[in-house]
Queue: 4 jobs
Job 1
Amino acid sequence: MISNPGYVKRRKIRGFIALFLSTLAAGLGLFWLGFILFDVLRHGLTAINLELFLEDPAPPGIPGGGLRNAFVGQILITFYATIIGVPLGLLAGTFIAEYARGTKFARVVSILSDIMVSVPSIVVGTFIYAIMVQPQGKINLGGIFGVLFLSIILAIIFGSILNLIVKKVIRISESKAGKVVNLFVTLSTILFGLVTFLILMPKLVDRIHGFNGWAGASALAFIMIPVVLRTTEDMLTLVPWTLREAAFALGASYYNVIKDIVYRSAITGILTGIILSISRVAGETAPLLFTSFNNSYFTLNMNEPMASLTVTIFNYAMGPYEDWHEKAWAAAFVITFFILIVTILSRSIIHLKYKNKS
């Protein structure tokens, strides 16, 4: 069979053009990424000093001081957002990929998650403001949702510990007995969450109102959940079903299959999604403007307005003082460096883990 030389030549030309345009687009994106990183490094590195981390802001117009309140506030808000958002997104993604696989409910949740990933963060900020910051008559919705979030997290932690203890201490081989034990753990977890909510409600509900750190953490967690959910769902779906069938054939329960087989196979992708979600919220400003607001003083109390690096960068960058501009560059450099370090460490841990296994 003799091929057409002209046709082959045209295919090579089209392939070369497509490769050239793709390379040009990638190079253009990398150029601007490098330009931004270089600019942040050039301006931010020169403004780094110990005062920036150890001192609180100086009065406006007076050089000196630091951003200790903003650093601590950013760490606390991001930490609690991760505590709230990552477990909920991970559990929701696991349910959609494993227990609701192929159902209409799973498809609807996946579509809604894709929509939520694209929702502007300022919309999330106004939503959390409406339900957790703005008073709704005589009902303190902010306090109720804050206590509810805390109760859910404590219940999840309690359920995980209880399930681990039951699995380690009581080894049950019969399927019926195993179902009874799992039902007991589930009901105990729900009961613990309800009791915790009823105990904490009168003690904390009136302390959480107006602008506060919990509202900021909830807004960031709301942004993190769909990212973690979609990543978890995609990574678990990529794990071949034959691995699950092999574990089922050995008598493993579905819980153990997910925990010991599926999660370990998809840990790299799941961790990448978690890092992406943390990176996404680490640079968000708009949600915190409507929720945690800002605070010029150092505080560890999440029930009151709290400073954050992103809002401080916004305020200082818009300010008229050169000293503020330098501190804004330094704060931007710290956020960028933090995300880089977290990414490198997580990748290194995964690499060492699989290297030791091999």
Note: Residues 177 and 183 are 10 Å apart (CA to CA).
Job 2
Amino acid sequence: MSKRKKRQPIRGQSKWDHFARDLRAGGFSADTKIIQSPPGESKISAVFLEFIEPFKQYAETGPALEKLIVLGICAWNAALLSDAEQNKFVKEIMETLLGQAGEEWRSDLDYLLKSLLERKAQFFAGNRRFIVSYHLEPTRTGYQLSMVATAPEP
């Protein structure tokens, strides 16, 4: 029986290099410190997967799961904004998504966004970390989600 080699990162790169590139592209400076797991905090990816759990049954493919993750991140971050900023952000999200998906998706997207916002407020209100970047990688048994978020507020 042959052993399958574990995929190795590109020489000289760590698995966190893609996050550093995303952060720089998003306006963060090159010296922004990435902490893999803040002491006493749950990994944001684990918390986030719990957040989207009720909706994962509808995301049966990799692309569908990725769309759910992106929509979930939008809702998660929107929930951290003031009411006025949240309304503006959600309106922009809807316009962008409907421009890509089509008007026939309006009620579904509206329902999903509102459900996620309510879920964030009800079960995850204490978690005030903004999600900055994510990486979804297929594995033999499913998918591995990695995320970068802002540090928890003191």
Note: DSSP finds five helices and two strands in the chain.
Job 3
Amino acid sequence: MIHFIIRRILIAIPTLLVISFIIFAILDLAPNDPTGNLPMTVPAEVREKIRESLGLGQPMHVRFGKWLVQFFVNEPLNILHDGFGITIGDAENRTRILSWATRSPVVDLIIQRTPQTLWVVGLSYLFGILIAIPIGIISAYKQYSWFDQVGTFVTMVGFSVPTFFTGMLAIILFSVQLKWFPMIYDTTLEVNSWDNFVLQVKQMFMPVAVLALYNASQLSRFMRASILDNLNLDYVRTARSKGRSEQVVLLIHVLRNSLIPVVTLIALGIPTIFSGAIITEQIFRVNGLGQLLIIGIESADIPLVQTLTFLFAVLIVLFNLIADVIYGILDPRIRYD
């Protein structure tokens, strides 16, 4: 297993370098310009000086090389310095990845927005998994029952209807009509008392519920299909013939093998927690990473968009590796050495 992990990491390094160059090249060749939002009265020579101050006067390969050094060397060293007090090199003169729009370090902006995204999108994904797995198991075991029929209808609706529609519907019903929950997420709220905690739960309820419905709908269909594929296999009949109870057969033998394809879906979905739910965050005004990415795209803030997009790619590769490792834990027949 250790050799497999090391081998996958060694393969991932050049893969991520290629991905980072592709992302950088696409953003660099895009027609957006950081001076495009300036007033038309700004002279052309002033625009050119602004472009040069942002480093756009240098060739693309030079700018890409500087970004690689800043991302893989300077930013980790800065995190060690600020977060753990470990100083390596000249911390004062170390260049960092700066946002063109705010002139703030991009990593600091990401760290600032991450808690909001984790609270909303992370909880919705967790609740989606906790809801989807039992629904998928019961629906498969009681195939074509009323529970399966209702579950199939709800999950098909939840997966088919876009989140911007369910989000707007939730706002109209629970905020405008019933006035149970606030329609706008207040990111400045500090949870330092019981009343503020209740307000925090209320403002999180609708975005978490909307995303949890979408995630649970998708995962429960995969869980049901995977359980059905395993229910009639030989090892299940063998376990039943040995006198094992239905609960043991279902929850130990069938569930363990059925989770293998579902684990892939769950692992590859985890990076979406950090990337944020762009549409849902816009609807409920959640000041998270999804909204930060939208702001970066609208303002042609290439360092911000480049760093965020590459971080998402790193997370996808990482959790793909984690899913492969979990395969070996769930199914002893899988060997990597």
Note: The chain has 13 helices and no strands.
Job 4
Amino acid sequence: MKARLTPEHYKWLVLVAGLLMLLPLPLMQYVGEEGLMAMKSYEMHVRGDWLHPSILGFVWPHSPLWHWPVMLICGLIGWEHVDIAIRLVSVMATWLTVGMVGWSATWLMQGRHTQIGWLAALVYLSMGEICFWYGWLGYLDATFGCFTFSAIVTLWRALRDEHVGWLLLSLLFISLAFMTKNITAYALFGIAGLVLMWRLDRWKLLLNPLFVLPVLAAFSVPLLWQEFVVLKGASTATTTVNDALRNFAGFGIAAYLSHWLSYPAVFMLRAMPLTLFFAGLWLLRRERFSSDEQLMSLLMVIVACLFPFWLSAGGSPRYLVPLYGLVALLLTGVLLQLDARRIRQGLMLMLLVVVLKVPYSLFVLPYIKDGMPERDVKQVAREVMQMTSDDVPLYSENDVSTGLAIAAYIDVWRQDRPPVTWNLDRKLRAYVLAEVETPALGRLVKTWRLRGDHVYLYSQGEE
């Protein structure tokens, strides 16, 4: 590489890194909850219902927006490729986040570098959590993170400029974040908003109806959704509250201490390589970093939004995906404090991560997840289909990830039959996929050991 980097290097590295996000899409079987996400999308399609996701036939009060692009993409490429579609939605969300990170850097740190937008975009795309995992995985997190981050940075612009237009755009983004996942979006948005109002000294806007009324209207979206869309007897907040309580309840003091000590380190490790590069410079080379108004505000917003998950004992690192855009901006600002030689070293580390994405996606990850026979979900799904090829319906009593993945594959592989649903009547003649050994279901057809779980296929109601 030349001694002096040109703006073209940043742009082309970003474009290449963005395209490499597509690598794992057609290679991997369902990972974790991906089968669940595919199933929900397909069941919505079969029912012709764009508002109420369902799992094994049961309607759940989950937000539906994430499933809409999946349904549209599958309408073009076919539902048999829904595994690719769910990941493509995440990749597109990552690309949108990259654009928002680059745009935010241009106005937030204006004048620090001629191509600061491209540099910030590269920082985001090279972060381990985004590059290797949640940036492409068919979960809600990349899309939820995109909308939540976009809401926070446009709110920042609105408060800085006291501009109602930016506020309205910010409220649109946070409403889309809620429609993607849950009310956690408003919690992060509110925490970030309070920190920014304090940092920018914009408390007077609380007395301005042009600012207050749109905020109240946006925060009423969950209530309106609950009243007019969610089925009676269900609640949009139930699963969110239950998940939050599970992160605090049932843990001993040792678990809390371990989490408090490890969580920031895990966060920094997953934001590598620049976080580790800066830590090494600080510890080994005595490099010292300064903070200005923007960098300190970024740091305070990140820490404030991180704190509730840090405080719990069971907060997953995946909850922090919406914060990585802010972290990328912070790391970009810190990188530009270094001399030209150190900046080149940082760029080389990011380039190394982008290059490692290729063997990781093509060989390492497929082997880790699918490389052994007892990890082959598709083969088990094929065997189940062969054993249940008659007119007897197939039901499920298996709602762990492996059981859901099997059902999700079967659903789209034989679209001429109804989707697999929960077994509601054990007296009916049917085949049943079970999570645990259940002799009461009838004759055991076959058992599989799959990804650490057991899968049982029973023939129920035989005379």
Note: The chain has two domains: 7-30+61-367, 374-460.
